[in-house]
Amino acid sequence: MRSQNRPGDVRAQLPASAPEQQESYAQILEDVERIIVPGLTHWQSPNFFAYFPANISAASVFGELMSAGFGVQGMLWTTSPACTELETHMLDWMREALGLPEHFDSSGEGGGVIQDSASSATLCAMLAARERTTRGVSNAQGLFGGAPLVAYGTAHAHSSLEKAVRICGVGSEYLRLVEVDAQLAMRPDDLNRRICEDRDAGLRPFFVNAVVGTTSTNAIDPLPEVSRVCAEHGLWLHVDAAMSGIAALCPEFRGIHEGLEGADSYTVNAHKWMLTNFDCNLFWVRSRAALTGALGLLPEYLNNRASASGEVIDYRDWQIPLGRRFRALKLWFVLRRFGLQGLQTMVRDHVALARDFSSWVTDHADFEVSAEAPLNLVCFRHVDGDDFNRRLLETLNDAGQIYLTHTKIDGTMILRMSIGAASTTREHVERAWSIIQSTAAAIQAEGT
Ligand code: PLP
C-alpha cells in the first residue's frame, strides 16, 4: 500500500554510475521487481484512500503507449495536425460532457487545452489575467505599469495558487485569504469587502481563484455570488475544480458548477478521477486571445504557412513550455472505451460509497464526520483527540492494509477517506471501516 521504504533505500541499491555496456531487458526487469516495486506506493490499489484518486485504465495506458510510440511534438499545428485537432475536439467533447458553459467552446472566442497539471492551468490563467489587467505592460516592460496587483482565494485553495502569485511576480504578500463560512467555502461578502479595501488603498485587484472541491475537505465556493463580485469589479474569475469537477459528468451533480457562466477560466483533471493516467489536465478559457496575448511568441524558426494563415491553433501559445505531448490520444481512448455512461457509473459508485462510509462514521459513538461530504471525500475523526488520531493514522498506514492521509481544520487533526480508485468496491470500503474501527479499539485498549 504505502511504500514502507526508508529514505535512501532505492538509491542504496543503484550503482554509482550509468552502465558502460548495454544490459538485457531481463536484467532491467529483475531490478524493477527488486528495487523499484518495493519503493512504490500503490495508487491503483482498491485499498488506496489517501490524498485524491489518480485512477487509470487500460484504455488510457494504450493511448499513452501509442502517444509515446508516435513520439510527436505537438507544439504547432503543423508539427502534427492530429495532435492539435484531436485535442481541440476532445476539449469540446468534455465541455459538453461536463455541462460547462458554451463560452468555453472552441466554436466561439474561447476554447480548451490540455496542460500537464491543474497548477499549470492556474498559472496560465493568472498570467492571462495579469496581461489583461496591465494591457500587456507587464510583459512588454517588465513592470506592472502601476500599483501592485492583488489576487484572492481562501486558505483552503490549493497551494498552486500561492505558487502562481509568486511566479507571476505578484508576490505572496498580495494574495488575500478571504474568510470562509461554516462549510469552509469562500464568503463572497468578505471577498467584496477586501476588494473594496484594496481598491481604496490604491491597489489593483485582478484575479479571484474559486475552488469547486477544495483539496482538504471538498468545500465548494459559491460561484454564483463570487462571479457576481468579480463581474462588479471587473476581475478575472478562475475556477479550480481539479478533482471534483469530474462529478459533473453526472447530471445530478452538476449543481457544483452553478454560476460558472461568470468564469473566465476553468480547470479539471482527467488524471484524477476519470480513468486517465497522469498527466491530463483540462483547461478552458473564455477568451483564447487573452491567453495567447500573454503567452504567444513567434520566433522565425517556428514560422510556417499554417500559423501565418491564422486558421490553426498552435497550442505552444496556450502553455508555458514549447514542447508538448500527444495527451489527447489517451483521453480519446478513455472516452470511447467507457463512453460517458461508463464514466458516470464509476463516479456514482464512488459517491455512493463515500455517503455510506459517512453514515457509518456518523452512527459510531467514537467517531464523527468533520466536514460535509458532498462527493467522494469523507473527513472524519475519532473523538479521542489529535494525538489519538495521529496515532491511529500512523498505525493504519504502517500496517499497510489501507492507506489514508490527513488534513487540519482550524488546527484540528482530521482523517481523510478519499474514495476513487478504479477497483474499489463496497467490499473494500466496508473492510477499511472495519480495520479503522478495530485499530482504534486496539489503541484504546493499549491505553487502558
Ligand atoms: N487544485 C486542487 C483543488 C487540488 O486538489 C489539486 C491536487 O490535489 C491541485 C489543484 C493540483 O493538481 P495538479 O497536481 O494537477 O497540479
Report on this model:
The chain has 15 helices and eleven strands. The protein has helices spanning 9-12, 25-36, 58-70, 81-97, 118-134, 137-141, 160-167, 188-200, 223-233, 270-273, 288-295, 305-309, 328-363, 386-399, 426-447; strands at residues 111-115, 149-154, 175-178, 204-211, 236-240, 265-269, 281-285, 367-371, 377-382, 405-409, 412-418. Helix 3 runs antiparallel to helix 13 and helix 4 packs parallel to helix 13 (328-363). It is α/β, with parallel strands linked by helices and 448 residues long. It has two domains: 72-325, Aspartate Aminotransferase, domain 2; 333-446, Alpha-Beta Complex (Aspartate Aminotransferase, domain 1), CATH 3.90.1150. The radius of gyration is 23 Å and the shape is globular. Helix 7 links the parallel strand 2 and strand 3 (175-178). The strands form two sheets. Strands 1-7-6-5-4-2-3 form a seven-stranded mixed sheet, sandwiched between helices. It has a four-stranded antiparallel sheet with strand order 8-9-11-10. The protein is 42% helix and 14% strand. Bound molecules: pyridoxal-5'-phosphate (PLP).
